[in-house]
Each structure stands twice: as structure tokens, then as C-alpha cells.
Amino acid sequence: MTNTPSRRALLAASAAATLAAPHVARAQAPIRWRMITSWTKNLPGPGVSAERLAQRINKMSGGRMQVEVFAAGSIVPAFGVFEAISTGVAEMGHTASFFWDGKMPGAALFTTAPFGLPPIEHQTWIEQRGGQQLWDEFYRPAGVRGLLAGNTGPSMGGWFRKPITSVEDLKGLRIRVQGLGGEIYKELGATPQSIAPGDILPALERGTIDAVELLAPVNDQPLGFQKYAPVYHMPGFNKPNGAAEALLSIPAFEKLPEDLRAIVETACAAEHSAGLVEAQASNAQAIVELVAAGAKVTAFPPDVIAAMRAKTQVVLDRKASESAFAARIVGSYRAAIAAGRNWASIEAYMAQILRQV
Fold first, then answer.
1. Residues 70 and 39 sit within 8 Å (Cβ to Cβ)
2. Whole-number pLDDT of residue 357
3. Which residue among 279, 298, 301, 357 is buried most deeply as judged by most CB within 10 Å?
4. Upstream peptide bond of 235 is cis (omega within 30 degrees of 0)
5. Which of 131, 110, 111, 117 is nearest to 337 (CA)?
6. Share of the chain above pLDDT 70, in %
């Protein structure tokens, strides 16, 4: 067959298409991220939030991003998530900021603080009163960004083998506790212990701890703490808010197209809302079931609450003295409490009146 100019043009076009095809396929391949977490697989509350967040990103991106979730210990330990994101082990994490407070004083407040802001007021601090800007600046040197991405709501005070009847009962108490509450317990003579969520029940079974503070009823229920420590104290002074944080690798995030960055941010915000309302609904049922299973819901005595409240200010003052940045975080947090105090008091009063039967 004669190799006419038109045939040569057709052959050239076909060859060009063949060569281009692999490049087109590669361009359409999804961006794959790994999300490492501090939670056991599908732990009620934060573990579920992590899974749902990944699914939301995958769906909102139309499959252009694929985020795979890894439970604590499968890639890094529960308390190794921040460092792993910082060093590029994974692109994303789901965790809680108080895990880093020992190395990064002030970090805990981005999750919660004793006698501090409840969920809506905490979100207001982050989004309306400068908290996010501080958070961004604080984590940026590590190449990490933190975002609100789930909320377990207010916590309970924890599970105790015996009721706490006075401050004297706290002396020598071995309690698993995270966040600044551990420092408060230490101030009052207890021995706080940092134990990953998946390792708490074995420690309680072995008798190496006397009490456990984890989260709220729905999160505590499947772990069966009431079998060994039936006294369920309230209020959860240590965690009036339960904000989870999504950790993003800044280099990985900045490589994303603008629309995918917006999807990641929007998915985190959506999960923060979804987690909170789910917690509100689930805790209402879980507390009834826990009581039926033998939990003894008991208030801390007023003198214990007063002592904890006083020590909170000591701990926050000490935290603020640990670094200039910690002082800025504590100052901003306290300013948010002061700014919202009047309206919060009115809200609380109205809720009390409206709930009266």
C-alpha cells in the first residue's frame, strides 16, 4: 500500500495517542493518602470519626483522592502520630492535641482544658477568636497543620474502684488520665498514668491502675470498665470538650489542587459537627445502658471539685510559664472564656428554666 501523506499523518496521530495514553492514565490516578490515628479500629467516637472523615474526603473528591485509615499501632504507636506526620511517614492523622502537650506546652488546649470551654464555645475560640491562627503558627515549624475534625462532647469524670469521698482519697490513686487533668491529679497527690486507649482495660484488669478517665459514656461502654471500677464519677472536669484534631502534612497538603484542599478542610469541619451530634444522641442511650449494667453514677464531692478548680489555675499558670508560645495560647484561651462568660451564663440559666418539668 502506498504510504500517502494522509496515511502518514494518520499513523503519526495514532502513535502519538498510544504514547500519550499512559500519561493520561497516570494523570487520572487518585491521590492516595494514609491517615494514621491514635485510636483502635472504629473506637466509638474518635475511631468512627476518623473512618467517616476518610470516606467523606473520598466521596467529595469523586474518587480523585483516596484516604486509607490505619489504627493505632499498625504504622506508628498511638502517641507517635504527630511526629510521623511531621517526618513524612503519612500525609494525615486523626488524634487529640493533648497527647503532644509534654513536648509542646499549650497544645492540650486545642482539644480541651479543665473547667474550660464546652464544645460550641471552644469552636468559637478556634474559628472566631484567633485560636486557629495560633494553632497554625504553633504547628507550622514542624510542617504540620491542625484542624478540628470530630468531637466527643463533654466527658465524664472517670471510673473508680471506690468512690472518692474527699480530697484525701486522691492521695496515691493510680489513675489513667490524659490532658492537663493529669497534672491536676498529681497536684492533689494522685499518680497519673498515660496509657493508650487500647491498653487501658488490661491495665485495669491487672490492677496496675485504680481508676480510668477516658471519654464519655458511649466511648467507655464497649470497653467494660464498669466490671472492675463501677463508680462512674461526674462531672468530667478535665474534658468539658472533646475536640479531635486532623493533622495534615503541610507539604502534602500544598501539593493538592485548590479544590481538593477545600474538600479536605470542608470534610474536617463537617466531621466536627457530625461527631458532636452523634455523641449527644449516643451518650443519652449509653448512660442508661451502663447504669443497667451496674455503673454507679456519682458526683464528686463539692470540696473535691473546689480543690480541682483551684489547682487548674495553678496548672494553667505553670503551663503559660513553660514557653512564650504557651503563654500566648493560655492567654488567648482565657480571653475566650472571659469574652463568652456573660452569654454562656445566660444560656445556662435559660436551659435550666426551660428544662424544668
1. no
2. 55
3. 279
4. yes
5. 117
6. 92
pLDDT digits 0-9 by tens, 7-47? 444 334 444 444 444 443 345 799 999 999 999 999 889 99
Q: Is 66 left (phi over 0), alpha (psi -120 to 50) or beta?
A: beta
Distance CA 86, CA 101 (A): 16
Name the residue with higher pLDDT: 242 or 15.
242
The CA–CA distances, whole Å, from 103 to 98, 99, 295 equal 10, 9, 36
Longest dimension (CA), the chain: 103
Sheet containing 65-70, strands listed edge to edge, beginning at the edge strand earlier in sequence: 65-70, 31-37, 92-95, 243-249, 144-151
C-alpha distances (whole Å) from 8 to each of 134, 145, 232 are: 63, 55, 83
pLDDT in tens, 83-97: 999 999 999 999 999
Residues 6+ apart with CB under 8 A from 288: none
Nearest by Cα to 212 from 181, 175, 237, 179: 175
CB 69, CB 37: distance < 8 Å = yes
* Of residues 328 and 20, more confidently modeled: 328
- Domain segments of the chain: what residues? 28-152+241-281
**3-class DSSP state for residue 90?**
coil
236 Cβ contact list (under 8 Å, min separation 6): 154, 155, 156, 157, 158, 213, 216
According to DSSP, residue 342 is labeled H
- Range 28-152+241-281: architecture per CATH: 3-Layer(aba) Sandwich (3.40)
| Number of neighbours of residue 165 by Cβ within 10 angstroms | 12
CB atoms inside a 10 Å sphere around CB 337 = 15
